Amino acid sequence: MNTILSNLKIQVNEKIYVKDPETSPLGKKIVEQSIFLIDEIGFDNFTFKKLGEKIGSNESSIYRYFENKHKLLVYLSSWYWSWMEYKLVFATTNIVDPTEKLSKAITIVTEKVTDDTNTEHINEAILNKIIIAEFTKTVQTKEVDQENKEGFFLIYKRVINRIVGIVKEVNPEYPFAKSLVSTIVEGSLHQHFLTEHLKTITDCNESVSTTEFYLNLAKNVLR
Amino acid sequence: MNTILSNLKIQVNEKIYVKDPETSPLGKKIVEQSIFLIDEIGFDNFTFKKLGEKIGSNESSIYRYFENKHKLLVYLSSWYWSWMEYKLVFATTNIVDPTEKLSKAITIVTEKVTDDTNTEHINEAILNKIIIAEFTKTVQTKEVDQENKEGFFLIYKRVINRIVGIVKEVNPEYPFAKSLVSTIVEGSLHQHFLTEHLKTITDCNESVSTTEFYLNLAKNVLR
DNA sequence: CAAATATAATAGTATTACTATCAACTATGA
DNA sequence: TCATAGTTGATAGTAATACTATTATATTTG
Questions:
Q1: Number of domains into which chain A is organized
Q2: What residues contact A79, with CB distance under 8 A and at least 6 apart?
Q3: Does the beta carbon of B219 lie under 8 angstroms from any beta carbon of chain A?
Q4: In terms of Cα–Cα distance, which of B107, B115, B106 is closest to B80?
């Protein structure tokens, strides 16, 4: 996986950006540093002006890459889920036993992320923290239907449906495969959030535990 | 329940408001109409100025009740979960069989809400729509730890832990009761959202189905 | 009726979320 | 190597947001 990812470019829907940030040093810096700044001050307090100051660049230059901060967050999310899809595919390819395949998939998608050193300008561990704290904000807007039509959430839906396929291999009779998987994926982000901030309503306390909970859940539901 | 609720006042943590909106006609109007306006234009586009125009009142008057729009949303959420707790308690009291009790509880908490005509100025059906679309925004902020300390989310956590108690009656051996319940409660809001906006990653399509999915899930996990 | 309280109207500030313009610098290719 | 296209930076400006402060006017209560 290592060598392959370093040659592969994560593809993000062109409609999300004004200019592809991967095509210039400034673009890469915007992406790289926005991850740190959003993690640091939170998306709600994040502005292009502050990011400009952080990277020693002008606010107006950032607008040449992203229409607004919402689009930047959608970009980061798309990148994340696209990267997640690679991890998923590589972890499950050539595994014949559906149950084992599903376990690997659930593990990939629910465990805490460590930095993938193959992508130079993106720190996946921090990006994962952002996804945990802010991902629902990319979807939960009044513009969701419009943006869904434009394909902003395709990658996310593809990740879900890839796992749905595995669930159906494990148990073709189970009638709620899609809801189960979307519950696991979204729910694991939520459990990670609770582990950090509202500990009294979760049993998860370290990275492995959230995964354990969902592995156990899936096993019980699909047996 | 009807007669009792019409006499009971839903209690909301005093730190959430500047002045209790239940104590004046203007306060009630602010709460009543904010629900309609947030539903209509979304929380992100909602401002006190727009609300003032809608209710024929001045922006500055609204600030005398709520510090900012975030606090107003926290107020609406607290009200909602408090009301949900009443429904829960009344639906499960005097039921001896834990399994039946849990089924009632899961049904209450996952089903689509219809207006409760006993509360004059609050339309619960619309409020439920707001909770589905915006609830995570009340929690997912940089101030979550501070606000949690001040007790802003106590009611929500109490609802979760009340159901956790029932889960433990059903199966005292199950090691993830808290995570299961928080997954169900938060997850059902998410499934309702997907049903409306991202239909390709959910199996739920009408009110009953989300409940069915989670009843089935809980049954399989706890047997 | 007086005093206290609630509300409305107006004004003002700092920040946000942009857009527009123009100058400077950089890379390319003829 | 020069011309030119494209990128970035600097500055300015606008409308909206998120408030705070002040004063006037109603309304309630004792």
A1: 1
A2: A10, A12, A31, A122, A127
A3: no
A4: B115
Query: For residue B193, which of B217, B210, B212, B211 has the smallest C-alpha distance?
Result: B210
Which residues in chain A have Cβ-Cβ distances shorter than 8 Å to B69? Answer: none
* A48 is a domain residue: no
Write down how long chain A is.
223
Q: Is residue A161 part of a domain?
A: yes
Q: Which nt has its C1' nearest the CA of A57?
A: D9
- H/E run at residue A126: helix A124-139
CA–C1' B12–D30 (A): 30
- Please say if the pLDDT value at position B6 is more than 90: no
Q: Is residue B3 a part of any domain in this protein?
A: no
Q: Which pLDDT tens digit goes with each residue over A29-56?
A: 999 999 999 999 999 999 999 999 999 9
Least Cα distance to B75 among B26, B133, B147, B4 occurs for: B147
How many other C-beta atoms lie within 10 A of the C-beta of residue B203?
A: 22
Domain that holds residue A204: 2-14+76-222
Distance separating alpha carbons of residues B181 and B184, to the nearest angstrom: 5
* Cα angle value B118/B131/B165 (rounded, 5°): 80
Q: What is the pLDDT of residues B204-217, one digit of tens each?
A: 998 789 999 999 99
Strand spans (E) along chain B? none
DSSP B19: S
Nucleotide D26 C1' to residue B52 CA (A): 18
From the list B178, B198, B202, the residue facing A153 with the nearest CB is B198
A118 contacts: CB under 8 Å, gap ≥ 6:
A2, A5, A6
- For position B7, what pLDDT does the model report? 54
Q: Which nucleotide lies nearest residue B24, CA to C1'? A: C6
* Side-chain-side CA neighbours of residue A81 (13 Å): 26
* Mean of pLDDT over chain A: 94
A21 domain-assigned = no
The CA distance from A184 to A14, in Å, is: 29
Residue of B153, B176, B216 lying closest to A216 (CB–CB)? B176
pLDDT for B2 beyond 50: no
